[in-house]
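INPUT
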Amino acid sequence: MPVAASAIYFLNLRGDVLINRTYRDDVGGNMVDAFRTHIMQTKELGNCPVRQIGGCSFVYMRISNVYIVIVVSSNANVACAFKFVVEAVALFKSYFGGAFDEDAIRNNFVLIYELLDEIMDFGYPQNLSPEILKLYITQEGVRSPFSSKPKDKPVPNATLQVTGAVGWRREGLSYKKNEVFLDIVESVNLLMSSKGNVLRCDVTGKVLMKCFLSGMPDLKLGLNDKIGLEKESEMKSRPAKSGKTIELDDVTFHQCVNLTRFNSEKTVSFVPPDGEFELMKYRITEGVNLPFRVLPTINELGRTRMEVNVKVKSVFGAKMFALGVVVKIPVPKQTAKTNFQVTTGRAKYNPSIDCLVWKIRKFPGQTESTLSAEIELISTMGEKKSWTRPPIQMEFQVNLLLLLTLLNRSRLLKVIVSLTISASCYFQVPMFTASGLRVRFLKVWEKSGYNTVEWVRYITKAGSYEIRC
Amino acid sequence: MSGMRGLSVFISDIRNCQNKEAERLRVDKELGNIRTCFKNDKGLTPYKKKKYVWKMLYIHMLGYDVDFGHMEAVSLISAPKYPEKQVGYIVTSCLLNENHDFLRLAINAVRNDIIGRNETYQCLALTLVGNIGGREFAESKNPDVVNADGWADRMAQLLDERDLGVLTSSMSLLVSLVSNDYEGYSSCLPKCVKILERLARNQDVPQEYTYYGIPSPWLQVKTMRALQYFPTIEDPSTRRSLFEVLQRILMGTDVVKNVNKNNASHAVLFEALSLVMHLNAEKEMMSQCVALLGKFISVPELELCVLFVVDHLLVGHNDAFPATLQENMTRMLMITDAQDIIKKHQPQIITSLKDPDISIRRRALDLLYGMCDVSNAKGIVEELLQYLSTAEFSMREELSLKAAILAEKFAPDLSWYVDVILQLIDNAGDFVSDDIWFRVVQFVTNNEDLQPYAASKVREYMDKIAIHETMVKVSAYILGEYGHLLARRPGCSARELFGILHEKLPTVSSPTIPLLLSTYAKLLMHAQPPDIELQKQIWNVFKKYESSIDVEIQQRAVEYFELSKKGAALMDVLAEMPKFPERQSSLIKKVEDVEDTADQSAIKLRPQQLPSNALVLADPQPVNGTPPPLKVPSISGIKVGISSNWLDHESASQTQSQPNGDLSKAQSQIPSADLLGEMVDSLAIEAPAVDMGSHQRVYREEDGIPDEVDGTAIVPIGDQANKVEPIGNITERFNALCLKDSGVLYEDPYIQIGVKAEWRGHHGRLVLFLGNKVTSPLTSVQALILPPAHLKLELSLVPDTIPPRAQVQCPLEVMNIRPSRDVAVLDFSYKFGTSMVSAKLRLPAVLNKFLQPLQLTSEEFFPQWRSLSGPPLKLQEVVRGVRPLSLPEMENLFNSFRVTICPGLDPNPNNLVASTTFYSENTRPMLCLARIETDPADRTQLRLTVASGDSTLTFELKEFIKEQLIAIPMGSRALVPAVPVPAAPLAQPPSPAVDANDPGAMLAGLL
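OUTPUT
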C-alpha cells in the first residue's frame, strides 16, 4: 500500500486554511505557506497539479471554491493521492447532502475532522465508502434545507461489515419495491478541423447504478460489447448474432464486480452495494456516432467587422431530441457590437468569455438550425495581434429512458417461473448512445426470487466537443 | 462624480465579488458593455462618455488591460465643462504614457488650457504634462513651459517664502533637482538650514501646519532629505546651527501614546538620524544616536511595527520603522566606536530574526552579518544555523551563504569551520550553493592537519540514513582524497568506505555520479595492500557505467577502468590533489551581488556618498582590527586575476568539450608517458600557482572544484582565460558586408569593429571603427593587414591603446590592381587585462566592390556580346548545386553585388542578362557581360556565360558569381575565428602551421 499523504489541507481561494489534518510528521507545519506563496499566488496555479517545493510535493485540485492540497515528502503514489481526494469529496458530499464548498466545510468542521481521522491512517487511505462509514460515523452533516431527507438507519454492525467477504453490502436489507436504475452516461470528445475532418474523437462512458434491492442479490449485466458477445456465442456454440458490437477500451470496474468470472466468462456479475455507485468505466475510440455536425464559416472583413455563420445539424434519430444545446462561438476580445439571426433558440454575446453563446433548449433529431451574426470590433491601442480563432465549443445532452420490465413483461414472467431468474429483457433500438453501446440484459437473482423493476437510461453528453473555425 | 449611478453600482458590484474570478467576469462584462457603447453610431452624450471613461479608469486601476477607448478619453480633454475635462485629464494621464501616439491629439487642447485664463484648467493641464509630458510635449510647449537651466537663484528666492504650503512644494522640487546634481544649488543650503531652524527651534508655524504639535513634519523631512544630497557643509556657522537643530530633534523625541504623533515625530527623527550619519558628525552626537536607536529597538517590536507602517504611509518613507532603524545601525558599523554599543543589542537583534515582518528579518540578518567579528562569531553563526531550519525559503539561500562566509571569516579554528559547513549542508542542502562546498573542499585540501578530521567527520555523516546530495558530493570528494588517512579506524577501510558510498549511488543525480566514480578510483588506488575483492566490485561499477548515456560518466568509467589496470601508473595519475592557489572567496563576491540586487530601499537610491553596506561587509579589516586567525591569507582580499570569470569559462568549455571527447583517442593516449608529461606542462602554463614539481597528475576532479583543469577530457583546454568568444557569426557578418558598405565586422564582449566603405572606380576607402565597449582601456592594440597581391592597402596608424568606452577610427586606403577573388585579411589583436585576444578577420574588399552598375540597352548589348566570342574572353559553365532561387530573388542577388540585370534583352523569360563595369589599375574600366540561363524544372542548375575584354577578369568574375550562387548564405568558406596562437592544444593533431606573414597560406587556412 503506497503512502498517499503526509498532510491534507483545505484552502479557500484566498489561501486561508479552512481545515487541515497532518497524518505524518515528516512535513513541517508551514509547508502550506510555501504552497500559498509559490503556487497560489503565481500564474502557475492550474498548470500542473503536482509541484515540488523545498523537498515536499504538493498534489492539489480545486473543487468548487476550495483547494484541496495534499503534501507529501516521501515518494508517494500520486494517482492514489488524487483518487483519495476525489473519493473523500464524494464522501463529504454524501454526508452534507450535495454541495461541497467553503460554506459546507465551515458548517461541518467536527464531522470533517471525524471523517478525516477515519479515512486515512498514517498516510494510508482507508475505507472511503459512504455506506460503510455511515454505519459508525452517524453524526449528520448540516444539510442544506433543499436536499432530501435522510432515511432511517438500521442498527449497524460495523466490525462484521468491514471485515466480511462482501464488505460493501450489508445483510438484511429489505425494500417493499425492488428497483434498479442503470444509467449509461457517455461523454463525446471531439476535435474537428474547419474542413470537417475529424481530428480526434473518443467517448468516455460510465455505467452508474442505483440499487434498492432486498437481501443479497446477484446481478448480471449483458452489454453488446464484442468480447462478451463472442464469448457468449462460443459458450452456447451458436454463431454470434449479427448486429453492431462495440469494442470497449480501458474498462475499469467497481470493486464489487467478480473479476474471476469476468476473466473466464466475460460477463459482468456482481453483488451491488446498496444505493448509488459507479459500476464501470470505459472508453471507446472507434465507430463513434457523432450526434451533431457543425459547419462554421467565419469571415473577417477588414479590421473592424466580422461575419459569422454557423450551421448545426443533428444526426441522431428523428424521434429523439437533445436538451440544453449550447454552442459557444468565439469572437475576438475587442468585440463591440453584435447582430444575430437565428432559426431556433436564442443567442447572446457574452463578453466575459469572449463568445457568442447560442442556446437551444430542445433540439430534435434530423434537423438543422443556423445562426448568422454580424460583429463589429472596436479599434485598440495594443499591438495588433491576429486573432487566434479558438475552436467552437458545444454542450448538449441526449436522453433516453426505458423501463426494461415493461417492454417484455409477459415473457419475463415465463422466465421467472421456469428459471427462477428474476428478470431479463431484450430490446433493440438503434443509436441510443454515441458509441452504440446498449444493455442487452440485466439479470437479478436472489434467493427469495422477488420481482424487480429495472430502469435503464442512456445519456449522451458533450465532453469537449470542439470544432475549429 | 456624484450622481453617476452606473459607476457606483459597478464599483459596488466589484467590491462585492467573492473572489478574483468573479471580479474578472464582472469586469469583462463591463468592458463588453463599454465597447458596445463606444461603438454606437449615434454617438455618446457627454455624461455617458464621462461615466464610461471613469469606469475604464477604475478597471485600469484594478489591474486589467484597457486597450481601447483612449480616443474618448483624449477627446474629453477638450470638453468645455469641468467634470468632463477633469476625467479626460485624469484618465489620459493614467492610461497613456509619454510615448503613445494618441498623446499628440491632446497636445493642442492641453496647450490651450495652459495658456488659457482659467486657473483650474491650467492646473489640470500642468499636472498632465508633469505626469506624462514627453519630448514632443516639451517641443510643442516651449516656451510655454519654462526652461530648467539656471534655477538656482530662483530656487533660493523660493526658499525665502514664508508660506509653508509653497515651501513644501518647492522643497519637493529642490529634492528632485539636487538629487540629479547638487552643484550650483549651494546657495540653497543655508536657506534649508534656516527653514529647519524656523520649524524645529522657533516653532514659528501657523496653526494649520502643525500636526499633533509637531511643526510641519513633512517639510522637516523633506528639508533634511534635501540636505543629504549635499556632500558636506563647509560654512562653520551654518554647520553649527544645523547641528544645534539636529541635537534638538534627537533629544526632543520620545515614544508617546498617540499613534499619529509618534509616527510624525519618528519620521522626523529618522530622517535626522540619517542626516547625522551622512554628515559624519562628532563622536558625541553619534553615540547619542546609537543610544537612541538602542532605546527604540528595545521597545516591544510589535507595537512599533504597527505604528511605523502608518508612518511609512504618512511621509512616504519607504521602509517600515525597524527596518530603517536596523539599516541605520548597519551603517553605523563603519564607525568603530559604535560597534561596542551596538553589540549590546545583539540579543534584541537576534529576537527580531523571528519577527513576522520579512523586511525586519532581512535587516536583522544583514545587521547580524555586519556586526559579526571574532568575539561573537561563534554565537551568531550558531544562531543562524538554528534559524535556518525555521526560516522561510526565500531567505534560506542567502542565510546559508552568509553563515558560510561568517564561519569562514571568523572561524576560531578550522575544525569548527568544517563542522559548521557540514552542519549547514546537512540542515539545508537544497539551499547550499556549490560555491559553499567548493570552498570547504579547498580549505581541507590546503590544510593538512584538517584532512583526517574532515574525513572522519564526513564519515560520521555518511552513517545517517538520508543525506543530501551535496553532502554526498562533499563526502565522496573528501573520502576519496583523504579516506586512506582513516584506514586504521574501525569501519573506515577502503572496502567499507566504498560500501557506504556505493549505497548512496542510486539516490544521486547524474552530475554526482562522475564524482563518485573518481572517488572509487581513488579508493582503489589507496587500498593497501591491494584488495582483490574491492577491485572486483569497483570494476563491476566501472563496467556498468561504460555504457552510460551520459558522456561524462561513460568517459570516466572507461578511463578509470583502463587506468586501474595499469597498477603502479595509477599511483602517479591519481595522486593527491595539490593545494589550491589562494584567492578571494567566491562566496563573498556572491553575497555582494546579492546585496546589490536585493537592496532597493529608498536610502540606497541616493547618490552613494556613503559607503554602501556591501563595502562594509566585503572588507572586514577595519571592523575588527586584528587579522583573522586563519592560516590562509585568502580573505585578506588578494584577488587572483583569473578567479572571478574562471568558473564560467571552465564550465562553458567543459560542456563544449564533452561532445568532442573522442573516446578512442582518449584511450590510446592515456598510456603514453610522454604525452602525460606534455599535458602536465601545458597545465603548468595556465596554472602557475600549482606546485607541479613534486606531483605529477593529470586526473583531477574538475566537477565542482572551480580552479581545476578539465583533466579527464584529455584534450587540455589551452588557455581558457584568454579565449574571448566573438559575438555573432563572423562569417555571416563578412558575407553581409560583401553586399553592403557599412556594418559590424567583428564584435566580442570588449570590442566592436565596424566598417564603413566608399568605393570609387578602382579606389576604395575603408574606415575601421574600433570601439571599446568596457570601462577599462584595451592595450597593445595591433592591426596588421595581410594584403593579397592584387590589392594595395594602406592602413593608417592604429593607436596602441583604446581608452575606455571610446571609439577610434582607422582609415584604410584600398587600390585594386588587377581582378582577383582573394581577400585581404586583418590580423587584429589586443590585450584586455592580462589576456591577449586576437582575431583574423577578412576585410570586405572583394571583387564586386570594384564593379560599377551599368544598364545596357539591346542595341548596346548585343554587338558587345557578339564581339567577345569564345574562350578565354567568353567563358561558359554549367553550374550545379545552386541554391534554388526564384528569378526575382536571383535578380536581387545580382543587383546587390552590383551586376545590373538588363530586363527584356533575352526573349526567354527564364534567362537573365546582366552587365557591369569593372575597375582596376591594370584593366581600366572594363565592360563585363553575363548571361544566366536557368532551368524552370530544376532550379539547382543553370548555365552561366560571362564575357569581358580581359581573360583573367572573365575567369575571376565567373568564379565569383558561381561562388555567390552556390555559397550564399550558407557560407561554405567557414572562417576559423580567433584561433588562440599560444599553447595550441597538444593532444589534437597538429594544426597546419600558420605562418602569419604568408597571406596565401593564411587564406588557405581560412577558406
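end of record. Residues 122 and 249 of chain B are 40 Å apart (CA to CA).
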